[in-house]
Structure formats: structure tokens, C-alpha cells
Amino acid sequence: MRVSRMLAAASALGLAATILIGPAQTAQAEDALPAGAVAPLDYAATGILKGMYGQYGRDWNWASPASLYVYPVGAKVGVVAVDKSNAWFTATTYGASQPASAGGAATYSPVDTKTVSFADFPVWGGFYAASDGNYYVVTGKANTAESKTDNVIAIGKYDANWQLLATGYVAGGVTQEFEGVYKPFEAGSVSMALVGGSLIVHTARQMFAAADGVRHQSNLTFEVDTATMATTSFDAKGIGGPYASHSFNQFVQAQGNEVVFVDHGDAYPRALMISGLRGYSPGAMTLDAAAGVYWYTYEPLKFVGDLGNNATYASVTGFELGQGQALVVGSSDPQDGEIAGVSGATASLKRNVFLVTAATGDAAPKKTCTWQTVSGTAKQVCSTDPAGSSSLTWLTQLSPVGTAGVGEPRLVKLSDNRFAVLYDVADAGSHTLNYKLIDSTGAVLASQSWPGEYFGSDSQPVLIGSSLWWADVPGETSTTPYLYALNVAKPTAPRVALTPSALSVDGALAVGAKSAAALKIVLDGETLTSGADYSAKVSGTSKVGLGKVVVTGKGRYSAKVTASVLVNPVKTKVTKATAGKGKVTVKWKKIAKSQVTKYQVAYRVKGDKSWKTKTVKASASSLAVKKLKKGKAYQVRVRAYKKIASGASNGTYYGAWSSVKTSAKVK
């Protein structure tokens, strides 16, 4: 069962899709859930890795830039899908192409699709929908010659219609403690935050060859003046960067003039590192703790193992700023702590979801740094006072040596003091979507889980309207992304939405039916319970053909779906089955002529398994079934069928068989 699965791809060109939910059945969404398909992507070409690090395969010790991004386009949903191999992406907006009317259904489909090439800088970095109404795209190219002057990173600024407005560049000789970009975004990702007119970019790079001949990896931080698109590294600003080597994932968020960074380090430090900059301003800066311009740093989760060992057995996958707190989530082995009596970090252990909170703002520790020459190399030497406060909480307590493990959790800000944590738990091939509502202190306010549902982390969920939206490519070998939604209008009681592509209506109605009781409503293989999970109303049952059933979610489900349903002839009633010499005469009560093309009369020796059938014209009300066996009692039954040769209801509709009537023994 899948959460709010939208249609499998109907067209890479953004064409409207037909929603099939069973034989001769169609459906339309009636709430603000698009039913259009995300353009299909080639899995191998895009290089989509499940989640940032590999979700469950734990394929990588480091993150990689995402290939799927969901973002708001007003009240609509936008999706950027990246083909990394061919250096282009599509930006598609999904919305209502036919407004819903009273009692009617809206048809949701792609309303706009743009294709953008980044062939000049063919290494994908990241996408950001900024609060200034513009889109920023970061791409790069390899710098194998170690040129200091060639541009290696490009930052494209696009308007809301995807027209390129301007481009900024970062040259290969940029420094952050150490010099150069040999490969941009290597073993990391790209995160962006807008502070006034400055776009702050926090990413990774493989550096120029060091004195030991090795090209090491670290993070890289720079700002972009969005008016001129001029770039300045944090080193060039005179304040140094939040340096981490190696840095296997990067995040940045801002509140006012405070900018907070998160890095996943495996060496310096070998820890989750939270770095905050108070008193940020564009251009050159002077650190002055007394004037409120200073750095602070936390290392709330240290990873066991040797410095520089890429395997930390952890992932850092979510970061938000709350009221006076930074909140970070990820998954990890127990490290030097203990979960269910187990400590350590190895490939054989199962992970749990951690939550880190760290004080920001005035409660953050002040860090004073000076540049000193150590063994001929200029380095920052820092002292921190006071110590500040941070905490680590395990949101799950699964046994590290058990069968269940967690996927990559994601963190979404719902309001200044409310956050959603989404994550998957897999156990013996089954999946459970889990949701926790927390506040800025990390206190868990509500929890909910949906066994059978799956949470994939191929994109960062985004709050649009009253729902959390995300995109995911289900399974390791699937090629088609899907859109998902979780209704959080009431954050303490989120609801999974009924969706056309996942919903099926089993069974059929008879002409004149006023109730849906004869139907079975199934969502991704699970039979829902009438009254508890949904209510249903039927219409269009006055004649044979296709009627409608409106299924409205209740309890754990939201949304409303209208499905077509078969309306068959009414059940025929057999009045007599009279045995005669070598025959049985069957009589039945005729139904309305408008419901009948012909009748079928089925018969068999009492006790046999198989039936034989004869067909008679619509005007008939009896049939003598001849050449029957003497001394045998026969069972008979009758039904009507109606053929419709044209229109939406084209097809053959069969009424239910009558009750079985048994004759006396044939003479």
C-alpha cells in the first residue's frame, strides 16, 4: 500500500493522464490532490540513489545531490526532475485543469512543463525555490587541470517562468582553509538559504592536490549577491568558513542575520557538526563577539572509528531552525552510546532515528577565533565560551541486532514551533510509514504510523497548503517517480489521502441501487471498512451502463474520489422448475425490457460442479430444457444481460444469477 500515490507516468511531455482503477472504471480526485503523472525518468541515466545515502542499501558513506525536488508554485505543486547523465531537467507544475463545481470533480494534470539544459556546466548540484520568487540552480564542471581562474561552479537565477535572468560563477582557485575545486559537489550535496539579497550556498568539493599528493574532500561555503550574481567565499569575507573535512553532507538555514550550517564529518571533526554565524552581513565582515558577530559550534553526535574512515555508519538527512533551537535528524548505529543494550558502529547493525537539538541565538556559545601560523600553515585557532547546550535523542529504539531498521528520516517545518519527522521502518520486506510531531525543544507531541505504507526519501518533503508533498521513485529498480501527499491540516492527526491510482472498486451495482453496500473499496490491496475508513454514495444507477460512486475518506483517510462503477441488470427471479419427460421447464419473472438483450438459462444435474447454458430472446419468460437424463433432479438458474454498442458505457453487462431452483426427477 502506498501513501497518496499519483499516476504512473502518462507522458514525459506533460500530457493529461487517464486514471485506470479497474475494468471499465475511471476515477477523478475531488480535493486538492493532482492526478497528473510526474514525467518518467530513466533510473540509470538520472543516477537516482534511494534517499541521500542509499535509504536501505546503505550504498554510500556520503550523500549525493538529489535528482527530485518538490516546491510550491502558489497553491500548486512543482517538481524538478533531473537527468544527470544528459545534463537537463524538467520543471513541471501540477494543478487543477478543470475547476471543481458543486457535486462535480476536478481533473488534475500537469499544467506547465519546462525543460532546462545545464550542458555547459554538466555536473548537477542542486535546486532552490527562494522566497524572492526566483529559482536558483547550482551546477559545475570538473577542473582536472587545477585551474585557479576557470569557472567551476555556476549559479543560475531563473524567474518564475524559468527564464534565465543571470548567472554567477565560482572560480577553481576558491579557498576554504585549503585551496581549490578539483571536482565540485564531490561526496556531498548542495544546500542554499536566502538572507536578504544574499544567497548562501553550502556544498562540498574535492580540493587541489595537497602536499601529500592527495586530493582531499571538504565543504565549501560562499555567498551570491542576487542583484549582481557576484560570488564571495566565506574565507574571502574574512571570517573563515564552517570548515569540515571530510564533509559528507551539508545543510544551511537562516533566521534573521543568523546563519546555521550542518556538516556530516568523518575526520575533522569526526562528528555531526553544527556551526552558527551570528550577525551575518553581505561582503566583508569582522568577527567581534562583543558586537554580536561570532561563530559557535556543536559536535553533539561523535562517530566511532579512525579519523578519515569514510564509514561512519550514520546519515544526516534533515535540518530546520525552530524557536531558539537548531533541529537535526538522521539515522545511525548506536556509536559510543547504547541502544537496547548494544553499542558500536558496524555494517551488520541496524540503525535508529536520532534527533539533535542545539541552542541558537543568544543562548548559543560564543566562539572567538584568530588566525595563527602553525608549522608554516595559517589556521584558525578558536576558543568557545560558554559551552552552550545541545542534546541527542533517539526517536526510535529498535534493536541494532534485530530484523527491523529505519530508512532516511526527513524533517519538515510546519510552523515556528512545530515540525514533522517522517521515516520508514522496514522489517522482513514489510514497510511502515512513521510520523512524529515535535516542537522546537524536540519534545514529541504526537506519533502515528501506517503499516503497509512506505516512505521514500528521494526528495525533501514540502508543506504546500495543508499537505506535505514529496516525490519518490519506489523500489531500487523502478524508473517512474510518483508524487505523494500527507494531509497535516491537523498536525496531531495527519491523514493518508485516498487517491485514484491506488483505489479500486470491486463488485457492481444493480439498476436502481441506492446503496454502495454491494461494493468493496480497496486501497492498494487493503480492503477498507465502511463507516470507519470511508463513506460512499452512488448515482447514475437508473439504467444499465456506468454509474458513479463517490468515496469520501474518514478516520485515518482524507480526500474524496469519484469512480465509475458497473450498473448491471437486476437479479432475475425463477418462479418454477417443472420436471417432465426428458425435460425441465424453467419459468422466470421478466425484468424491464430496457435492461435485457437476452436471458441466459443455466442447468446441471443436482450435485454436479459445472453448468450448461442456453440463451433465449428478451421476450421469453420460459424455456424447456430437453434431452435430460431420466431419474435425475436438475438445478436451474437464470440471469439477464444487456449489450451496449456505443458511448462511454460500451460493453456487455450481466445481471446477477437468480437463486438456484431444483426440479423433481426427470421422467
Blueprint (SSEs and pairs):
Blueprint: E1 27-29, H1 43-46, E2 68-73, E3 76-83, E4 88-98, E5 107-117, E6 123-129, E7 135-140, E8 151-158, E9 164-171, E10 175-176, E11 178-179, E12 183-184, E13 191-195, E14 198-206, E15 217-225, E16 231-233, E17 245-255, E18 258-268, E19 271-278, E20 294-302, E21 314-321, E22 325-332, E23 335-339, E24 342-344, E25 352-359, E26 366-374, E27 377-385, E28 390-394, E29 404-406, E30 410-415, E31 418-427, E32 430-438, E33 444-451, E34 462-464, E35 467-472, E36 482-487, E37 495-497, E38 503-506, E39 509-510, E40 520-523, E41 526-527, E42 534-539, E43 545-553, E44 557-558, E45 560-568, E46 573-580, E47 583-589, E48 598-605, E49 612-617, E50 622-626, E51 633-644, E52 651-654, E53 661-665
Parallel strand pairs: 37-44, 39-45
Antiparallel strand pairs: 1-45, 2-3, 3-4, 4-5, 6-7, 7-8, 8-9, 10-11, 12-14, 13-14, 14-15, 15-16, 17-18, 18-19, 19-20, 21-22, 22-25, 23-24, 25-28, 26-27, 29-31, 30-31, 31-32, 32-33, 34-35, 35-36, 36-37, 38-40, 40-41, 42-43, 43-45, 46-47, 47-50, 48-49, 48-51, 51-52, 51-53
